[in-house]
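Minutes, project huddle
Topic: does the predicted pose make sense with iron/sulfur cluster bound?
PN asked that the exact inputs be recorded in the minutes so nobody has to dig through chat later. Recorded below.
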Amino acid sequence: MTGGRTPVILIFSFPIRSTVSNVTFRDLEEFSKCPYRFRYARSESYVPAPSEFVDAVVHSVISRMNALRLTRGSVTEDEALEEFWDCWDESYGLHPPRFKDSSDRITHLHMGEDLVRTYVRMVSRYGSPRILMNDIHSVRQLPGGNGIRIDIDEVCMRGETVLLCRYVTDGLRTRTDMESDRSMNIALLWALYNIPGAEYAVACWRLLSTGTEFESPTDRGSLTRTAVDVGRDVGVLRAAVAFPPKACDLCPGCPVRSNCPRFAHADSLPEDPDSRSMDEGVRMVDAYRELEEKKRALKDRIAMLEERQRELSESIVGYADGHGYNAVNGSDCYVVVSHQKKVVLPEDKTDVIEHLKRSGSYERYSMVNYPRLRSDIMKGQTDAVLRNMAMVVPDDRLYLKRKS
Ligand code: SF4
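Predicted holo structure (tokens), as shared on screen:
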């Protein structure tokens, strides 16, 4: 297959070329899991993982084959595989992924071939006249003024219903994963507003590892709520000034692990436990942990003493009342027993708060939520006047964690 093929460099436009003005769902996911890795993944030196490589090549083939289906109606397994091999070779030359060895490379090559075969089988089963558009890459504006990039493999019409299809190459998605797929929800919104005559939109995931299909209908209310959430998340990403590493499920096989500050000290330590215990960092953290344990033991002891004191105070009150005493003496001190009253409010304060608001006395009793105010100032979510009243100063914190 030659001519007209999407330049292979575009295969990796997601991780490599996206900018903050063109935020993708992948950006949001990586940023929320590990901001440090997110920043690295946006650099030109990013090395794709084998599964990302296979996914990108298979999607490139699907894009090309869908274009043929649109003009010609159908595709064959042979031409899809030929396209796959060409695309694999070209992509491998430009962006070789992190295969462990040649047998790992062959395993992933066969995996990609199987996914392409399944794609051809699935589209032959569904027929081609339903396909309306393919390979959509657009930006959907969100509440709050931010935009997010949406990517749809295929758009079909079924009566007045638009079917948005996504081909999934990793077979690990569960029904819950798919139903909470925010990128698909935003794509559905895009379809409802951009495709003339689209009254309803349905999300459709085609799982190429199993050859199965899963559909989920639209709930406009939940789509709008998703748009608000995604808009807020894009705002947080855009405002980010720090990109700390965060241990997460992306750590195993992470391409930046060798330079990651989260693991740099652990990786620099010698294997031998005796030599390791001589390391300056190890000695300081061990001493820190010891103090933390002593503080915890002290807190437990204080809680126990307070409980004993509470029991004793009940006994003293009983003793004083029984004898008609106002004060009870010790050897060199005494306690005065004073009978007072205290107010106990209901545990659920909803009615109390409602009443205070209705009666106009809420302001008198409510307090400013300073932790939230500080957090909003930090995230740049307050107005400039408030921001200028605060100072942002260094605040070094230590989080002591057990090694798993
Ligand atoms: S190794 Fe883990 S913590 Fe470090 S950059 Fe990668 S994902 Fe983040």
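Observations noted during the meeting:
- Residues 1-20 have pLDDT under 50 and may be disordered.
- Residues 34, 36-37, 245-248, 250-251, 254, 256-257, 260, 262-263 surround iron/sulfur cluster (CB under 6 Å).
No decisions taken; revisit at the next huddle.
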